[in-house]
Amino acid sequence: MADPRDKEDRDDMADMLDADDAAEEIIQGDDDVAMDSDSDEEVILQNDSIAYFDIPQDSLFSIAQHPVRPSLIAVGGAAGEEEDAPGAGWIFDTSSAQSRPVLPPSFASDPAEAAKSNGQSTELTSLHSLEGHSDSINALAWTLPQGEILVSGGLDGRLRAWKTDVRPDSGVDVSFIGESQEVPEVDWIQSCPSPAHPNTIALGASDGSVWVYTIDPSDKANPLQIVQSYFLHTMPCTAGAWTPDGQLLATVSEDSSLYVWDVWGTAAANNITAENGMSVVSLTGEDQRFEVEGGLYSLAIDPRGAFVAAGGAGGAIKVVSLPRLTPATQSQSQARGAQRGNKTAADPTSGGQILAAMNTQSDNIESLSVSLASTTPPTVLLASGSVDGSVCVYDATRRFAVRRHIVGAHEDHSVVKVEFVRNSWMLTTCGMDGVVRRWDLRGGGVTGNNAAATAAADAGLQKEWRGHRGDGEGGGVLAFVQGETGERVVTAGDDGLALVFEA
């Protein structure tokens, strides 16, 4: 993820509307109120949330959801408007949020009764404050598989860890474990999903370094233990992701490099290594086929572990194959290794082949997500969100052909995050317009150039949620979580609000 303090600067660089687009009439919905030309301007505030958390006094940059108890949420950001304001974070529980009843048609003619029946949003309180950072909390993650530890990363370079004991009848007990500070700024944190390596996280830093830690609360002298550290990126490491089995870690950088690290030595044990001896895939801008002028900023890995997609400047996306480390291919690679020594780039089990290069969108790719949609065989979808305000969906089973390009998915505001509801056709997106939207990607095709007005009808817009300030007024949605089912979406806003929306 790029530095959140640079987000606003990048938004200002969004493409200007064409003259034809500027003249287009966009119907936003029934909530818009017509105004006479001689009347004072009226601002209509819409809040679709069922609950809110408003203790933060400044922007929220990060959010994390407990892997076992999804109602437990952590948010982090800045504590105040001053440049030297410390970072701040909180833990809260959304289980007290009351669902709004589905109203019968008869209520439609009585807005007052409908509003009364809908009720008010639930105010959420803090269970624990995350303190100790001297600059904004830029990243949060609960460790896997049980969520025993909450880890925060700050723009002060600190990595801090809290033990979180979830008790069914008494909430959660939180106790500080310790901290480490090896880097200037922490850009992202990702938890390792391998059952063999619990309570392990990886982080990427502004100096390009990558670190892997295992956290052991029982070791009072050294609870944050460094497992690996890598220093091949020469510019900020902007994104990272583990393969589904937690054996490999992929990272990208502003220097246009992609490395897939063999953290636990599984690939090396099967004679699959790159020349540097640390990674299994090593691609940089020196390879003109892979070069992305302006760098790489986002990353997503196929749930089957077959490929990694890296998104970057100018709308570029590169798709690269990953090593196949299943037992069958392990024995094959061992046999090849015995015959030829270490792998070559042509070895299909080794990964590193560029499978596709796309450039449909016109500005930086901020977020990527992959889904195995429910068909037989499964349809593999890759979604990308761009600073140009569009969302593009590619069909990996058809050589990454464009399945849908939703131009203006968030109007002319940056798309900050795209994420599929797990193994489904449903894609959730958020942007600097302050809106969260969900799209049903079944059927349909590529929309036209003026898709801002036709997205709802033609691109599968299923639902949208409003409540953040947005519209370029410092109220964009900077992050969200939605669990595995997508029934509830919890946001972190640039306006200092965390909102709970119900699907």
Description:
The chain is mainly beta and 503 residues long. The chain is 8% helix and 40% strand. The protein has five helices and 34 strands. Strands 5-1-34-33-32 form a five-stranded mixed β-sheet, with no helix packed on it. A four-stranded antiparallel β-sheet has the order 2-3-4-6, with no helix packed on it. It has a four-stranded antiparallel β-sheet with strand order 7-8-9-10, with no helix packed on it. It is globular and about 55 Å long. Residues 7-43 and 328-346 have low confidence and may be disordered.
Could you list some keywords that capture this structure?
503 residues; mainly beta; 34 strands
Mean pLDDT: 84
The share of residues in helices is under 10%
For the secondary structure, the number of strands is 34
Taking all Cα atoms into account, the compactness measure Rg is 23 Å
Number of DSSP helices? 5
What distance lies between the first and last C-alpha atoms, to the nearest angstrom?
27 Å
- Largest beta sheet: strand ordering: 5-1-34-33-32
Q: Strand fraction band? A: 35-45%
Structural class: mainly beta
Q: Low-confidence runs (pLDDT<50, min 5 residues)?
A: 7-43, 328-346
Sum up the overall morphology in one term.
globular
Q: What's the assembly state of these chains? A: single chain
Largest sheet geometry: 5 strands, mixed
